[in-house]
Amino acid sequence: MTKTPTDILPLNPAPDSCAADACCAPAIALAPPVEAREGDACCASPAAAPGPARAAPAGATVLRIPAMDCAVEESDIRRALDKVPGIRSLNFQLGARTVAISAPDDVVALAVKAIKSAGYDSAPLPAGGPAADAPAGAHAGDDHDAHDDHGHGTGVKRLAAALVLAIGAEGLHYIAGDVPAMKYLGLALAALAIWLSGVETYTKGIKALMRGRLNINALMSVAVTGAFIIGQWPEAAMVMALYAIAELIEARAADRARNAIKGLVALAPEEADVLQADKSWKAVPSNSVSLEAIVRIRPGERVPLDGVITEGRSAVNQAPVTGESLPVDRTIGDPVFAGTINETGELQFRVTAAASNTTLARIIHAVEEAQGTRAPTQRFVDRFAAIYTPAVFVLALAVALLSPWLAGLEWLDAIYKALVLLVVACPCALVISTPVTVVSALAAAARRGILIKGGTYLEEARKLKAIALDKTGTITEGKPRLVEWKSLREGEDAGPISRIAMSLADRSDHPVSKAIAQGLSLPVSAVSSFAALAGRGTQGEVGGRTYVLGNHRLIEERKQCSPDIEAVLKAHEEQGRTVTLLADADGVLAIFAVADTIKDSSREAIAELKALGVAPVMLTGDNVATARTIAAQAGIDEVRGNLLPEDKLAEIKSLKDRHGMTGMTGDGINDAPALAQSDIGFAMGGMGTDIAMEAADVVVMNDDLRRIPETIRLSRRTHSVLMQNISLALGIKAVFMVLAIFGTATMWMAVFADMGATLLVVANGLRLMKVKAKA
Question: Averaged over 667-688, what is the pLDDT?
């Protein structure tokens, strides 16, 4: 599977420097937004609710098209715009019902006319979207009203009136169908019902036919018109009314999946209690709070913005962001996230992100982007529907023309049978089954703190046969502590040596370097010419001399190792410790031993992976002895140590050759190339670096390794539901198509079959939103 990193995060501040045993990976180019593909499909194709995090290309004009809520309508509009010269690019967002057009103003005006000619109204949005400065998703609820009024051209009241009129027409036809006055009154009621419920369907269907396209609107337009002409006007009215009602129900059900993540928006308060210049506190709108402002939150209140605690201590419920079920202790220097709940003590924090750029907003944006992409099954279904719909039209035409000759039917009976076939053949159930299922699964994963960047990775995860796992921060806590250090310069004062190590370690964000700095806790000296040594450590000048602080590999390459040093290193490594050495041009000055502890969840996660038939393999830049000790504690049988980033790439390729589809799990800069090379990359979002999360396809927000097997189980369940839905949709259609051909199905039965099949697959897909951790 070929994949490209997507621009959904970063979620953390960028590191100032490279890791002590990590490599500075080359910048990974981010893929441009993927335009939605064409599909000759009907019904809602759930993407996400609109949100300001979804930025249009610079200089583009964003048009909101209320009636564009499914693939067939997007395809219609795209085809119309293809004929307008001068358009540089198009960016469709079905969830927001918008299209961003990059073109000069005069070309945009022509584009608006082309959209109008295709049967769709449009209105320009302000630059930046409807709420550029508001928290993401703030206007997500707008879709319902728009949909009622415009999405299928029928509000609830109009549909109710159309249904009443259709029932009236049926009643008059049944009671007094031969009385001329009653007949004409019934015909008028039927025509009015068709107009109320189907005027937009007709408009789109006629325009599609004029362009030589056979979509669902064209099918329904032909079927209802034909039934009306051959005298089945009460049935035609009822079919159109029921079809419109089914469309509305489907759209509402799809909106439920589409807006499943919308509930997160309400978690971030609209106001924040901000410290003023006169030391007073004032409640101000969250979206107007500036960076570095001090915000106060009392016990029981939700955190309005991202920040770093400056005063207080409390337990914080982070479930909305990380999926953790238990509160975590937070104190001065710790981060807090918008939407989380302060449970026990009053906190003050310094704002580090604007309302539209909080972790919560970016999580919502990540899910929106994922929901807007098309999974492999959905692409297949859309291609199938593009062939299926015209094929059914041709079949219906053949039934109408050949039945009188081959089966001796009356012409009106043959035509009626063909019209029933058209109604039965509506591909709604087939097409909507896939997006609703995928979106429901993506939303369920997001609620568990698993951000899957697209339906492709959701579907493909079930095929994984091996998972490569980084050690530090993935299997272990990633919060090592300095347990021992020793100066190797006998007779010299150890103070200056420890201060040099402190100065170099303080410049790195790697967990091992941070552990050394925290363990020494000394004043730092100025460091010049600081540099990261890929996969080896760091280097810098202190007091005019050059020093390195790095791993065993670095000292070996500098030819500064000795039997005595090897013995010390071996003793530490056998205890599962990571050893870092300080050296200058004359030799090794000191040895620092850092110990990390394995996460409680890692053992369980490894056991679950094995139970799923997925082989876990540890890939680490740490020494082999330490790696084997940690791997044994975690239950991992296959270990690779002393790996540079390029070595990890080679190991990923080897695992692919031996096992098949291979995933990679990591959190560091040195893991980014392997994450990008793997079939599916999993990044730890709590401690992970920005580049690792950008390169990955799945981000685990709480660094819990058990989320990896959980993702695989969700993928397998999603695939199962997809296959169920496709089988249900095609099976029901096949049964009623046979009944239609043999003359035992009516248009009533046809529309109820279509409605029933659609609602059945939608309900089945929505079940995934309730998926539990062990599903």
Answer: 78
Instruction: Report d(CA 692, CA 672) in Å as an integer.
Output: 5
CA of 154: how far to CAs of 160, 204, 431, 491, 757, in Å? 10, 14, 21, 89, 22
* Three-class DSSP category at 358: coil
Per DSSP, helices labelled H in 425-486 are 428-447, 455-460
pLDDT (0 to 100) of residue 772: 58
The beta-carbon contacts of 332-338 under 8 Å, at least 24 apart in sequence, are 333/308, 333/309, 334/308, 334/309, 335/306, 335/307, 335/308, 335/309, 336/303, 336/306, 336/307, 336/308, 336/309, 337/303, 337/306, 338/135, 338/267, 338/268, 338/303, 338/304, 338/305, 338/306
- pTM of the predicted protein model: 0.65
What sign does the dihedral 619-621-624-628 (CA atoms) show?
negative
Give the chain's radius of gyration (CA, Å): 31
pLDDT, tens digit, 9 for 90 and up, residues 723-775: 998 888 888 888 887 887 776 777 777 777 777 787 788 888 888 877 655 54
C-alpha closest to that of 114 among 68, 81, 136:
81
667 close to 689: Cβ distance less than 8 angstroms:
yes
Which residue in the block uniquely carries the two structure tokens 């995928």? 438
Q: What is the mean pLDDT of residues 425-445?
A: 78
Contacts of 217 (CB under 8 A, 6+ apart): 42, 72, 201, 202, 204, 205, 208
DSSP, collapsed to helix, strand or coil, labels residue 37 as coil
597 burial level (CB within 10 Å; 0-12, 13-18, 19+): middle
> Is the separation of the CB atoms in 632 and 603 below 8 Å?
no
Determine the longest span between alpha carbons in the chain, in angstroms. 120
> Residue 249's closest CA among 722, 761, 719?
761
Crossing angle of helices 707-741 and 428-447, rounded to 10°: 170
> Residue 205 CA to chain centroid, in angstroms?
33
774 in helix, strand or coil?
coil
Q: What are phi and psi of 129, to 5 degrees?
A: 95, 180
DSSP H or E stretch at residue 572: helix 563-574
Contacts of 708 (CB under 8 A, 6+ apart): 467, 605, 609, 663, 665, 682, 700
Is pLDDT above 80 for 530? Answer: yes
Indicate the average pLDDT of the chain. Answer: 77
Output the six-digit token pair for 558: 């500098």
pLDDT of residue 770: 72
In the chain, the amino acid numbered 524 is V
Name which of 64-73, 110-119, 177-186, 386-395 the model is least confident about: 64-73
Q: Is 21 a catalytic residue?
A: no
Structure tokens at 423: 């109604």
> What is the reported pLDDT for 56?
52
Three-state secondary structure of 542-568: ECCEEEEEECHHHHHHCCCCCHHHHHH
Per-residue model confidence (pLDDT) at position 185: 87
Give yes or no for a contact between 378 and 455, defined as CB atoms under 8 angstroms apart.
yes
Strand partners, 595: 481, 577
CA–CA–CA angle 76, 81, 83 (5° rounding): 110
Q: Judge whether 386 and 42 are in contact, CB under 8 Å.
A: no
CA distance 166 to 177: 14
User: What is the CA 562 to chain-centroid distance, rounded?
Assistant: 52
Q: What is the DSSP string of 657-707?
A: HHHSSEEEEE-SGGGHHHHHHSSEEEEETTT--HHHHHH-SEEETT--TTH
Q: Report pLDDT digits (tens) over 465-518.
A: 999 998 877 888 877 889 899 898 877 788 899 999 999 998 887 778 888 998
Q: Which of 21, 470, 671, 754 is catalytic?
A: 470
Whether residue 615 contacts residue 638, with contact meaning beta carbons closer than 8 Å, is answered with yes
Residue 73 token pair: 């309508």
